[in-house]
Specification:
Elements (H helix, E strand, L loop, with lengths): L5 E7 L3 E2 L2 E2 L5 E7 L2 E4 L6 E3 L13 E3 L10 H4 L4 H7 L3 H4 L4 H14 L4 H8 L1 H6 L12 H4 L4 H4 L2 E4 L7 E3 L4 E4 L10 E4 L6 H5 L3 E3 L6 E4 H6 L2 H4 L4 H5 L38 H12 L2 E7 L8 E9 L15 E9 L5 E5 L13 E2 L2 E4 L5 E2 L7 E5 L7 E8 L9 E10 L3 H8 L9 E10 L4
Parallel strand pairs: 10-11
Antiparallel strand pairs: 1-4, 2-3, 4-5, 6-7, 8-9, 12-13, 14-15, 15-22, 16-17, 16-18, 16-23, 19-20, 19-21, 23-24
């Protein structure tokens, strides 16, 4: 059993009275676990506690709320002037990240297994306003306001005034009349505006899209780090350049608000990534599919083959478009795999790897691109709160590739020529995990074909 220790240092400007903050007041809270320091400044929420879960060595973090959810402006109010941006955000996974049934089920299971130690850690990025206000945890209590339920929304992002680092929700938020973004010439009749360089940088996204287990420092999600070590970062390409730019077929906005200045391009707010889930709106699913299909390529290279020696092929899977690993995020849950099928001219299947059965399970012999974690006993686990080490990491870095070799015998009655089709598939979570968390009648997560290639083989001999 590993015992965790946590502490915090708070620096307060001004005073605190009756649950409200005076203008300019801020607290920066730093949580130190062992000798490592993680940043957390849930707005001005102070953190305390040293209790640790025996099962997962997950330090318990409790939050003393200082803001109220009513201190934040509802996205429905923002819609009045920012109707196009609101429409892009509404239905996105950012707007749904606290209502996603799979997330909620995992959140509750983690809480049960850790005695509630994970509750604040997980919800800090999925409902930051819920954490600021103390309405969360629990996630399903009657005290959770509608604004807290709406995940990552306008007035959270645009009241972030700074950061204490990368990862583990290291944002500083100051709700109020000042809204911050990447423009220096914005004027609003409803609120004040301020330029924020942070909003133009990948560092803004990295505050939540890098997660380390606070008990053992294991990297649970390292999307920012993957980008930081890539050629994309070296060339100055930020997260926003891929995930907040107009996709083909998407209306290109030229103004961020009604009556606002005309601009060459306004960042989109669909926040599309690999989130082609059943919860996302139809438009967001289509955009996510486009994003996934722009991330990778597949090629089939036949090798020397004959009726005597059989068929030999190489399948090359390359990360040609993503500025981070594919897949990324919670990659012990994500599924990206290769399906390879060889048929003869009569349509007879001679070889198949990577098929999905009638229950939605992927062929266990398939080439799977993911991360596999181990718990304290060395057993594989899909539960990040139980993870203490990495068994294997079989993903593809930016600009990288993976070659898989396939060989199979050829029946004497096979009709020539042979056709090889290789397809790279993606799914947000396995059917077994969805069933375990949500039950047998849960919605089936869509499978996206990211890339495909085929080749014709005429055998010798």
């Amino acid at each position: 059993m590993i015992k965790g220790k946590s502490s915090f240092i708070g620096k307060v400007k001004g005073g605190y009275q009756g649950g409200t903050m005076r203008p300019g007041q801020a607290i920066v809270v730093v949580i130190a676990f062992f000798v490592s320091v993680f940043a957390m400044s849930c707005g001005n929420a102070a953190t305390t506690g040293t209790e640790t879960s025996v099962e997962s060595s997950f330090p318990r973090i409790s939050v003393i709320p200082i803001y109220k959810s009513s201190d934040f402006t509802s996205a429905d109010t923002c819609k009045g002037c920012h109707s196009d941006i609101y429409a892009q955000w509404n239905g996105s996974m950012m707007s749904n990240c606290f209502q996603d049934p799979l997330y909620l089920a995992m959140h509750k299971e983690a809480g049960r297994e850790t005695g509630g130690a994970t509750d604040t850690f997980c919800a800090a990025c999925h409902s930051p306003i819920g954490i600021f206000s103390g309405e969360v945890p629990p996630v399903d209590g009657p005290q959770v306001s509608e604004i807290a339920k709406r995940g990552v929304q306008c007035d959270f992002c645009h009241t972030v005034s700074g950061s204490t680092g990368i990862g583990n929700y290291s944002f500083i938020s100051e709700p109020g009349r000042v809204k911050r973004a990447q423009y220096s010439d914005s004027v609003s009749p409803f609120h004040q505006t301020a330029y924020s360089e942070l909003h133009t940088k990948a560092d803004f996204c990295g505050m939540c899209h890098n997660l380390s287990h606070p008990g053992n420092k294991l990297a649970i999600e390292a999307t920012y780090t993957e980008w930081k070590n890539s050629s994309f970062a070296a060339q100055g390409v930020q997260c926003q350049d891929c995930h907040m730019t107009p996709a083909p077929g998407v209306k290109k906005l030229t103004s961020a608000a009604t009556g606002g200045p005309q601009r060459p391009m306004v960042f989109t707010h669909q926040f599309v990534g690999g989130n082609a889930t059943s919860l996302a709106s139809e438009d967001h699913q289509k955009l996510a599919t486009q994003q996934l299909q722009g991330a990778a390529s597949v090629s089939v290279v036949p090798q020397a083959s004959s009726r005597q020696t059989g068929v030999s092929i190489d399948v090359n899977v390359a990360n040609t478009g993503a500025g981070h690993y594919i897949p990324t995020g919670i990659t012990e849950v994500r599924q990206m795999w290769l399906e390879t099928v060889i048929t003869d001219a009569g349509g007879n299947v001679l070889y198949r790897s990577g098929a999905v059965d009638e229950n939605g399970a992927v062929d266990p012999q398939a080439k799977m691109y993911n991360t596999e974690f181990a718990d304290a006993d060395g057993n594989p686990t899909e539960k990040p709160w139980m993870a203490v080490s990495v068994i294997r990491d079989k993903r593809i870095p930016p600009g990288g590739s993976d070659i898989q070799k396939f060989n199979t015998a050829v029946p004497v009655d096979a009709k020539l020529p042979l056709t090889v089709v290789a397809t790279l598939h993606y799914r947000s979570a396995s059917s077994s995990l969805v069933e375990e968390l949500l039950g047998k009648n849960a919605a089936v997560l869509p499978i996206v074909d990211m890339a495909s290639a085929q080749a014709t083989i005429n055998l010798t001999g």
